[in-house]
Amino acid sequence: MNILVCVKQVPDPVEIKFNSETASLIRACAANIVNPFDKYALELALQLKEKHGGEVTVLTMGPPQAVDALKECYAMGADKIVLASDSLFEGGDTLATSYALFCAIKKTGEFDLILYGKQAIDGNTAQVGPQVAERLGVAQATCATGIELADDKVLVAREQDDCQEIIEVKMPALVTVAKLAVEPRNPNIRRKIAANKIEMPVISAADLEGIDAARLGLTGSAVKVKKMFAPPVRGAGIKIENETADNAVKALVDYLSNAKAI
Amino acid sequence: MSEEKFQVIIIGAGVAGSAAAYTLAKAGREVLVVDKGRAPGAKNMTGGRLYTYALKELMPEEWAEAPLEREVTREIMMMMTPADSVAVDSTFGSVNQQSYTVLRARLDAWLAEKAEEAGAMMVPGSTVDGLIIRDGKVAGIKTGDEELEADLVISAEGANATVAERAGLIRPVELKDVAIGVKHVIKLSEEIINERFNTVSGKGAAVMCVGECSKGVSGGAFLYTNKDSISLGLVVDSQSWKNSRLPLADIAEELKRHPALARYIEGGDLVEYSAHLIPEGGFKSLPQLYADGFLLAGDAAGFVVNRGFTVRGMDYAMLSGIAAAETANEAIEAGVYSRSILKSYESRLQQRVLKDLALFRNSHDYITRTRHVYKTYPRLAADLMRNIYNVDGSPAKLVSGLVKKTISGRVPYFDVLKDMFKGGRSL
Amino acid sequence: MGRENSKNVWVFIEVYDNKIRNVSLELLGQGRVIADQLGEKLVGVVIGDNIAGLANEVIAYGAETAIVVSGNEYKDYSTDGFANALTALVKKYAPSVLLIGATRNGKDLAPRVAGRLETGLIADCTDIEVNSEDRLVEWTKPAGNMMSTSICPDSSPQMGTVRSNVFKKPAPDYNRAGEIVAEDIGTKADDIRTKIVEIIKTVQGETVNLEEAEIIVSGGRGMKGPENFAILKELADILGGSVGASRAAVDADWMPYAHQVGQTGKTVKPKIYLACGISGAIQHLAGMSSSDLIIAINKDPEAPIFNVADFGIVGDLFEVVPLLTKEFRRIKNG
């Protein structure tokens, strides 16, 4: 089975964590990482490959430094990695981005299954996967927490708003992947060394025959950002400190009854 | 390169590890560096000052391109009580490029990049679980389900050297032999920093403080000006921290509120908080620095000298990295990796590192065992100055009288003399 | 599709268990406002099987017209079936605006439809307004720790998915007159490439409906382990509320994803939101800061949650929560 996983390199959300018990730190670092949901997608692809054979290709669209994301995917076990990089691809909305990815996928090969993370943690739109599926004309399933192969179909466990669905999807299909029960594997050192040395093909817009440059990037975007602004601030209220739990609870109950909330 | 075996595997991509990797790779060796941080330097910490002579020795040409923050041209030595402070402010126009402030995330990433350019294989994001030991000789590393072989392993894994410890090559770190450093990096604009420290871009200040910096916990606080941020932190004696029962985060938080320091960081954004162990055992607790197929470098070897007003670790780490690499080179050329060959590591270190450690062998003891340094003297200094500057309409006094008045009842004269004598010899 | 001749504001009406989802009713409320500002009509589109009764609801909640597509193939949601029907309708009637609730299915459907129509789509909006000058819809949503406002100036319809609980559900008026249009759009069975084979309800067979809960008792990293969520459940039960969780708690597998509140989980707007052991990362605040009342219990006095809490208790939640439960039980039992 031929599986394609599309990944995106995203900035690591800046978080300062500190473990006061061991006096160790997990530092804030403005580094780039593979979008966590895309890593789950890759993990799922690798598991399917291990069970059923086949090949896993990873494609990313991004600036030249996105090779780091691809190398990490290769180290995790991908068979092939492809970078689509061109300034013409930059700054697009999901419509333009999905068009560029669609063209790059066509160039990369034919796939039975295409996996995406359910959303990228920088933009959080969750739109590119379904829009690529639309352009490829394949079936889609979003927010999968598991995939089983069943002949020419896949069974997808789908995370719903308030339950789980098992749906049957005809292949070729595009599935977006949510958090799995298992964490993505850690690549071993030999794979990392191999990934460091790998030569990878880079696809630019010029390599894509028949591509319509007017549909790419900012020019090809239907959505324009008009402004950015700081969110309105909600002020703090009463804060009870250095009180016994009994008194604090009494004060809270009084507060709630005065506010007629209960 | 054979797929299966490296000439040297280095554990840790800090200053020592990268210096060793750089030197070995320049000599054409097949070197693998494994670091547990996601990127080299991601888990490393320093107060923030690098003495540049070591960097120049490592890379005489390229050192000037290193991501150094500001050259330290102004040194402020401060004694503080919870509310007051007395400072000696020195500006050294005669000192040229002696030390720079640095941020490890930048410095280590750059050093690792240089090592990689020279031909070393850098693998971040992997934790070494143990060593392969064959016939009493270290023969490689174990990580996850993998074993990687090497003629020689250099542990540059930092203060808490668990790999070397687990292999029984060094004894476990004892609480008394480590201090704990906590640090905040606070973002401010370059202009504001220039203004507040009366300096120009590229030049900056180092502030070292002794006294009750924070919540009564004894230690030395430090403040360094980076290009567009300030490193503010505290080194506390592990025992005194343990006795205080205060969360480290609270101590660091309180430090920021000290009136002598708060004004420097006002309006800045906290961008980083970190804590780290600092080896403080000094010369007396140095471990065995080599074994068959194995060398120890940097903090893992305990190469740190804390003299209260200057703390040096990174320069020694760099020098020990170079010395380890030179030793490894010699061993590779001889094709022998036994203790008897690696013994030359110690004589190499002797010239550069060990003589300092021996010279200052008592400084740590002096600082941690002499409570007066932390509590009494800063208070005396602050009170004396306050008395001198005090004008409240009461009858004026002579300075000599004020000194006696200030000291009286606080500390026996004999103690003062004793501390000065001991301190004079060990600092 | 081009902008010319496109007219009317459409709301995709999501049906679940033969009922209209709250978010669709909320969108009829805001859709009404937008339609009035544009001087256009408000249209609700219902796709399903045996849903005739729902058209009246659509009109009662403010639409002039309800378009109904019904058929056995639409009994369950399917991307292919619903995208086919909705696209066909848009092509026929050319609405100027199309609003879809940002539910799982809404976000499955909307990009597929927007892709087919080659129009812009803005995800997870928390506000939509009409600019009186150019008469374009302005779509506002959180973007990192900022908010961004986007427009779709050249293509049509202007499409967006909208979070639930950001607009008020209007009061229904069952005397309102309106037009019900039945459209016969079939989708061949072969063209529907997905099939639901099973629905698994979450924890103990109950569904989680945080978005519609009036009281939410939420736990974060401070809960220390999955077993401790029992004390939140107990409190929520007494109050008739639901249990929520921060991303930290969900990532640690202490609670299922369906309980997650925040930017990558649910946006909630209960009357009372009780945050227990939740530090209050900006991503969490994005999902609950429009709650009527926010109560926080945390032992860290510096936790950012206290900056938005109407009432904060600095203390041990393991002491406070059981006492609260006891107190409310006493009040409840009179």
From TrEMBL, chain A:
<protein>
    <recommendedName>
        <fullName>Electron transfer flavoprotein small subunit</fullName>
    </recommendedName>
</protein>
<dbReference type="Pfam" id="PF01012">
    <property type="entry name" value="ETF"/>
</dbReference>
<dbReference type="GO" id="GO:0016491">
    <property type="term" value="F:oxidoreductase activity"/>
</dbReference>
<keyword id="KW-0560">Oxidoreductase</keyword>
<dbReference type="InterPro" id="IPR014729">
    <property type="entry name" value="Rossmann-like_a/b/a_fold"/>
</dbReference>
<feature type="domain" description="Electron transfer flavoprotein alpha/beta-subunit N-terminal">
    <location>
        <begin position="22"/>
        <end position="212"/>
    </location>
</feature>
<dbReference type="InterPro" id="IPR012255">
    <property type="entry name" value="ETF_b"/>
</dbReference>
<dbReference type="InterPro" id="IPR014730">
    <property type="entry name" value="ETF_a/b_N"/>
</dbReference>
<dbReference type="InterPro" id="IPR033948">
    <property type="entry name" value="ETF_beta_N"/>
</dbReference>
<dbReference type="GO" id="GO:0009055">
    <property type="term" value="F:electron transfer activity"/>
</dbReference>
Automatic annotation (TrEMBL), chain B:
<keyword id="KW-0560">Oxidoreductase</keyword>
<feature type="domain" description="FixC-like C-terminal">
    <location>
        <begin position="369"/>
        <end position="426"/>
    </location>
</feature>
<dbReference type="GO" id="GO:0004174">
    <property type="term" value="F:electron-transferring-flavoprotein dehydrogenase activity"/>
</dbReference>
<comment type="similarity">
    <text>Belongs to the ETF-QO/FixC family.</text>
</comment>
<keyword id="KW-0830">Ubiquinone</keyword>
<dbReference type="GO" id="GO:0071949">
    <property type="term" value="F:FAD binding"/>
</dbReference>
<keyword id="KW-0285">Flavoprotein</keyword>
<dbReference type="InterPro" id="IPR002938">
    <property type="entry name" value="FAD-bd"/>
</dbReference>
<dbReference type="Pfam" id="PF26311">
    <property type="entry name" value="ETF-QO_FixC_C"/>
</dbReference>
<dbReference type="Pfam" id="PF01494">
    <property type="entry name" value="FAD_binding_3"/>
</dbReference>
<dbReference type="InterPro" id="IPR036188">
    <property type="entry name" value="FAD/NAD-bd_sf"/>
</dbReference>
<keyword id="KW-0274">FAD</keyword>
<dbReference type="InterPro" id="IPR059103">
    <property type="entry name" value="FixC-like_C"/>
</dbReference>
<feature type="domain" description="ETF-QO/FixC ubiquinone-binding">
    <location>
        <begin position="213"/>
        <end position="277"/>
    </location>
</feature>
<feature type="domain" description="FAD-binding">
    <location>
        <begin position="6"/>
        <end position="185"/>
    </location>
</feature>
TrEMBL record, chain C:
<keyword id="KW-0249">Electron transport</keyword>
<dbReference type="Pfam" id="PF01012">
    <property type="entry name" value="ETF"/>
</dbReference>
<dbReference type="InterPro" id="IPR014729">
    <property type="entry name" value="Rossmann-like_a/b/a_fold"/>
</dbReference>
<feature type="domain" description="Electron transfer flavoprotein alpha/beta-subunit N-terminal">
    <location>
        <begin position="9"/>
        <end position="196"/>
    </location>
</feature>
<keyword id="KW-0274">FAD</keyword>
<dbReference type="GO" id="GO:0050660">
    <property type="term" value="F:flavin adenine dinucleotide binding"/>
</dbReference>
<dbReference type="InterPro" id="IPR014731">
    <property type="entry name" value="ETF_asu_C"/>
</dbReference>
<protein>
    <submittedName>
        <fullName>Caffeyl-CoA reductase-Etf complex subunit CarE</fullName>
        <ecNumber>1.3.1.108</ecNumber>
    </submittedName>
</protein>
<keyword id="KW-0813">Transport</keyword>
<feature type="binding site">
    <location>
        <begin position="260"/>
        <end position="264"/>
    </location>
    <ligand>
        <name>FAD</name>
    </ligand>
</feature>
<feature type="binding site">
    <location>
        <begin position="277"/>
        <end position="284"/>
    </location>
    <ligand>
        <name>FAD</name>
    </ligand>
</feature>
<dbReference type="InterPro" id="IPR018206">
    <property type="entry name" value="ETF_asu_C_CS"/>
</dbReference>
<keyword id="KW-0285">Flavoprotein</keyword>
<feature type="binding site">
    <location>
        <begin position="246"/>
        <end position="247"/>
    </location>
    <ligand>
        <name>FAD</name>
    </ligand>
</feature>
<dbReference type="InterPro" id="IPR029035">
    <property type="entry name" value="DHS-like_NAD/FAD-binding_dom"/>
</dbReference>
